[in-house]
């Protein structure tokens, strides 16, 4: 049975409820339905049938990113059906609980406080894991994990880095198989070519390019429609960021990973300072305020809380520059439906005041999987994760059904029907379903060409596709740096990080659109301090000193 909940106060949530029996029969039965056995003397006796062992029910969080194609939902997705059907064979009854990505923190707090959290909860924040572990809200997983060597072997690189708190394991980190990805700047090369301009290499050059996009409308979309820099509302679920331009001002990412999507801050002379409180950070936001006032960013970006406006701007071909997790090729696919000549290309990190270039890249680990104490069967959760690392199962949750969505060609997954895939594999595109391993290793050019042999029959397109990804990977390889991992207890962060992030989501937006920058910036800084910002920074500084001993 599939049960779909309607929208509630926290937004749209789709829940799949699968109530099914699981029957295992290991012996032949006589016509009467009883089990025939042979006694040591050879005489036949009958014994009553045993009740089939009930499958262990587990509820699994699945983020709702509002990316389901029209008419599609979790209730009729073949990949979801595969997971539910196949896990029954190992004694599991899986139910997916949909959680709107934009409401992750709020909803998770409600779940944990009420004892109603699913058996598997997900987060990208180690501070969140530390907080719930300290409160006694999570199961210790060491003894359960020890029973599943395949899971340990598959995720060892990630397990060795994160998931521990005070010497005990409280989270299973997903392995990030390809670390050559993360936030990256992209620009419309066809627009640059029309203007006789080159890729910007500094923030000042970006500003000049954005002005030219606005004033000269190289895409002929209409000066009143052109969006030089597409940016959605600054919130937890934003699909685009401003890492690249902020790095360009000299802000670093010396702090631990958090859920405020911007460079963390700078560590200098033994002291960590969050980006919002650095001189470089203030200079950046003042520049953003100027860019906004001159109409180079969408005037309505603050209201675009679900990134729908941002997506429309990219897809309709009116946007010229973005900083997001998308690859240039994926943006080409999206924009070329409206503008066949559109060409998105990556922008290398901007040269900073000290001459360096820096960009963020993902670590060897990704999301963190934890089991709330309200769960009655943590072992079933580990069994589910172990089931997923089996190669066939992992390939399915990552890419869809073999023979339907893809076929194997020498270890390379070759797409069969891209249009069909869009209707079925959306549920796994962000890696939210494959919670043990996100993505596969980076492919070389030969493998990239092979992977699209069926989906891109035109040789020129295949060559463009392969070259696009090779260039993309090389930029991350040359300039990318992952966040610092601080795995020691941080009680201040546990108490303050949610309030700090909330204050910044609100404050940064106000600063960008402010008519009085100095006043609004001072108010944002004061709000950050009231939320515990200075204490947060002090704790990181102390943690670094401990790590260096």
Q: What is the spatial order of strands in the main beta sheet?
A: 5-16-8-19
Number of strands: 20
The total of helices stands at: 20
Query: Which ranges are low-confidence, i.e. pLDDT below 50, for 5 or more consecutive residues?
Result: 1-49
The main sheet comes to: 4 strands, mixed
Summing up helix and strand content along with how strands pair, one would put the structural category as: alpha/beta
C-alpha Rg, in Å? Answer: 26 Å
Helix content: 25-40%
- End-to-end Cα distance, whole Å, is 57 Å
| Beta-strand share of residues | 15-25%
Mean pLDDT: 88
The outline comes out as: globular
Protein name: Lipoprotein LipO
InterPro entries: Bact_solute-bd_prot1 (IPR050490), SBP (IPR006059)
Region (Disordered): 31-55
Signal peptide: 1-25
Verbal overview:
The protein is of the alpha/beta class. Helix content is 38%, strand content 15%. It has helices at 78-88, 104-114, 126-134, 142-145, 149-154, 156-159, 189-195, 203-216, 243-248, 279-293, 308-315, 328-335, 378-388, 391-399, 418-424, 445-451, 459-479, 491-513, 517-530, 533-548; strands at residues 35-38, 44-47, 56-64, 92-100, 121-123, 164-165, 168-169, 172-176, 184-188, 227-229, 265-268, 271-274, 319-324, 344-347, 359-360, 365-370, 406-409, 412-415, 437-438, 480-481. Strands 5-16-8-19 form a four-stranded mixed sheet. Strands 10-13-9-14 form a four-stranded mixed sheet. It has a two-stranded antiparallel ribbon with strand order 1-2. Strand 11 and strand 12 form a beta hairpin. The protein starts with 34 loop residues before the first strand and ends with a helix. Mean pLDDT is 88; it is low at 1-49. Residues 1-25 form the signal peptide.
């Amino acid at each position: 049975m599939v049960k779909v909940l309607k929208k509630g106060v926290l937004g749209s949530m789709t829940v799949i409820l699968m109530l099914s029996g699981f029957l295992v029969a290991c012996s032949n039965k006589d016509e009467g339905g009883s089990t025939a056995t042979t006694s040591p003397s050879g005489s036949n006796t009958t014994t009553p049938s045993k009740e089939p062992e009930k499958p262990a029910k587990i509820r699994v969080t699945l983020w709702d990113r509002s990316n389901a194609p029209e008419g599609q939902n979790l209730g009729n997705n073949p990949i979801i059906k595969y997971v539910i059907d196949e896990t029954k064979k190992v004694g599991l009854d899986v139910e997916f609980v949909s959680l709107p990505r934009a409401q992750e923190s709020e909803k998770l707090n409600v779940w944990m406080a009420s004892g109603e959290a699913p058996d598997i909860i997900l987060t990208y924040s180690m501070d969140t894991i530390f907080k719930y572990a300290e409160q006694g809200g999570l199961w210790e997983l060491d003894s359960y994990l020890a029973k599943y060597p395949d899971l340990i072997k598959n995720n060892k690189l990630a397990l060795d880095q994160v998931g521990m708190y005070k010497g005990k394991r409280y989270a299973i980190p997903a392995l990030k198989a390809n670390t050559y990805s993360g936030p990256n700047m992209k620009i419309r090369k066809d627009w640059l070519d029309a203007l006789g301009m080159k890729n910007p290499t500094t923030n000042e050059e970006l500003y000049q390019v954005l002005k030219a996009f606005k004033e000269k409308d190289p895409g002929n979309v209409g000066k009143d429609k052109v969006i030089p820099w597409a940016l959605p509302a600054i919130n937890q679920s934003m699909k685009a960021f401003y890492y690249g331009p902020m790095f360009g001002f000299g802000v670093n990412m010396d702090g631990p990973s958090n859920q405020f999507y911007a460079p963390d801050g700078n560590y200098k002379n033994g002291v960590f300072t969050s980006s919002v409180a650095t001189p470089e950070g203030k200079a950046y936001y003042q520049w953003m305020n100027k860019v906004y006032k001159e109409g180079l960013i969408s005037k309505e970006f603050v209201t675009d809380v679900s990134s729908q406006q941002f997506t429309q701007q990219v897809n309709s071909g009116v946007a010229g520059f973005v900083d997001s997790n998308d690859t240039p090729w994926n943006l080409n696919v999206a924009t070329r439906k409206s503008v066949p000549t559109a060409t998105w290309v990556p922008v290398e990190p901007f040269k900073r005041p000290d001459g360096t270039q820096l960009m963020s890249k993902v670590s060897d680990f990704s999301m963190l999987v934890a089991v709330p104490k309200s769960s009655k069967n943590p072992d079933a959760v580990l069994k589910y994760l172990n089931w997923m690392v089996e190669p066939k199962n992992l390939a399915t949750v990552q890419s869809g059904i073999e023979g339907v969505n893809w076929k194997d060609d020498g270890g390379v997954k070759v797409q069969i029907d891209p249009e069909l895939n869009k209707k079925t594999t959306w549920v796994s595109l962000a890696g939210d379903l494959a919670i043990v391993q996100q993505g596969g290793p980076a492919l070389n050019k030969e493998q990239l060409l092979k992977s699209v042999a069926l989906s891109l029959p035109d040789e020129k397109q295949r060559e463009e596709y392969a070259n696009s990804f090779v260039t993309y990977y090389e930029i991350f390889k040359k300039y990318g740096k992952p966040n610092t991992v601080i795995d020691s207890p941080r009680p201040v962060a546990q108490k303050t990080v949610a309030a700090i992030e909330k204050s910044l989501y609100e404050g940064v937006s106000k600063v960008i659109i402010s008519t009085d920058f100095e006043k609004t910036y001072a108010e944002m800084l004061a709000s950050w301090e009231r939320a515990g910002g200075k204490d947060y920074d002090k704790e990181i500084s102390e943690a670094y000193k401990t790590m260096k001993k």
